[in-house]
Amino acid sequence: MTARERFRRLPFWSMLWKEFVQMRRDRLTLGMMVGIPAVQLVLFGYAIQTEVRHLPTVVLDESKSADSRRLVAAIENTGNFDIVGEVANRAEIKRRFDRGQARAAIVIPPEFSTDLKRGRLAQAQVIVDAADPLASTAAINGAALAGLNWSSERTGVRGGVEVRVRPWYNPGLRSAVYIVPGIIGILLSMTLIIINAMAITRERERGTLEQLVVTPISKTGIMLGKLVPFLLVGYVQITVILLLGRLLFGVPMLGSLPVLYLFAFPFMAASLAIGLFISTTVRTQAQAMQLGFLFMLPNILLSGFMFPREAMPEAAQWISAALPLTYFLEVLRGILLKGTGVAALWPEGLILAGFSVVFVVLSVRRFHKTIE
Known about the structure:
By secondary structure, the chain is of the alpha/beta class. It is built from 15 helices and five strands. Strands 2-1-3-4-5 form a five-stranded mixed β-sheet, sandwiched between helices. The longest helix is centred in the middle third of the chain and has 31 residues, at 219-249. The radius of gyration is 27 Å and the shape is elongated. The termini are far apart.
């Protein structure tokens, strides 16, 4: 190699060495680049499962016989249903569905045992919350399997059992009806968290953070001033997606739009506060983006947007319970697909309000420490 060739390569190696040295000094960015993919692979590899089993199920047994109890046991033994209690009528089934306490119901009519004894075809019904097509498909298959198992056990005996499945809220099992309401929450989360995650770091990099601090505006006022404009943008996003979802995909609007807007407020406030909290923990916009996406992936994969929470391991369900989007998706799908009102959704609203208050307080306190 000639001296000239060595000379030409020298700037490249110098630049390469400089970048490695700088990367080593910025340990937070290096740690996120290496650690975040590893953590996400382990978490999502174990958590994401498409096979939905153990749906919480209530029983409406109007037969009150040994045969009806055996049928309920046969349906539960498929592993697709977990019996969580009994109900007195169909109205209570709807209340349990609206409150998220059940995803399926077994209904056995009064004449069930009589039909079996007379050698006739006895009928039973499984009602499924079909707002989630993936979970309802598993329930339909489980109900059919239970009917086949019952018939095979009664070989040589006249009569049989027909288990009919009735899907509620999404009879056509259309994926768009389930996905489009979730997209509202995902887009709100993505835009509000990521954009606000760069709010403080952008001011710091531009040198305007100190100017904000010396103004008469309090630190709480600065935080709230960065939240309110994006709340208005969030409401515009909700309105646009609802209109397009109705016009393009036929997504129903069975509940109250004002109630939806009411519950959207604490969710958007919590998302914006999370973004602000992230921005107070990092030094650059690149770090803010990385931490924002670290939070977004669990939001998309563990909140119930794409994969039913019932199919996840218990540890993943605990993580999903710490995500505001998990509760907002329940609100969205409850209002849009089921016509659920405030009486059934107030626990989710209270939790979302708690998230918003906690993260606003943390952001203000962390901002105070950051600028000193």
